[in-house]
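Deliverable D5.2: sample structural annotation.
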Amino acid sequence: MAFNKTIQMCIFDGNPNGRIMCELSNWNGRVYKISRNDLSEFANRPDCEYTGVYFLFGKNEDNKDTVYVGEAEKMLVRLKQHLKDPNYWNDCVVVISKDNILNKAHVKYLENKFYTLAVDAKRSSIINNTVPTCSSISEFDESMLTEFIENARLLVNTLGYKVFDKIDTSVVEKENSDIIFHIAAARGADAKGLLVPDGFMVIKGSKIAKDTVPSMSSNLVNLRNIMLEKNIINQEFVFVTDYIFTSPSLAAAIVMGRNANGRTEWKNINNKSIKDIEEE
């Protein structure tokens, strides 16, 4: 049964873009969000050398979110090593236990599970070179770490990183649902999608227009081309996977092959646009 959660959050120096510490009531875990430039400040914390897992967040050349999933017996030592890496990350999220009870087997297990969650969620490009090995642990430890993962996911999500949250697309099977929006337009465009917490998701199997109008902005044309090159959209102009756009308008423009206002173009089975529903 779902129930309310109480989260404690400390924003150091009053800067939300710097360091943040989060804890959950009745849980021995602790989550830090640290910007790359504030790593030296994290070094002053007494728990900076605790054992735990960490996630490095950044952007790739296509401006797509990236994540690196890692583990460390001495957290600060490992994070300092990543400062020598190319500048592929900007923010780090660290997950430890307040009483430092996690051991090497625990964090190897956590690293593998978080890596798998990120792969299944398909929200970010994972830049690990290899799949982390999963250590063998006792049944008691597995139960403890399962709860640890769920609580950590909640706090990581609260900090704005949805990399481990898989979108439940079971609702798309309900063809008569008024939460599914549709566009059928010129040049073969025929797509379905729905609003999600971090934007607008176009559903796998949706089809985009085969070409674009001359007035379409060059940035949008380039994005379509990149999506074709990356096989997000195949050569039949069909989405091969669910894909989240930052806004309904960006999604509509890619689908229709022209500049578009997604809040009026996407309509549900009752022919109501997103704008109509918001005004109601």
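Annotation notes: The radius of gyration is 21 Å. The CA atoms of residues 142 and 250 lie 42 Å apart.
The annotation will be released with the project's public dataset once the embargo ends.
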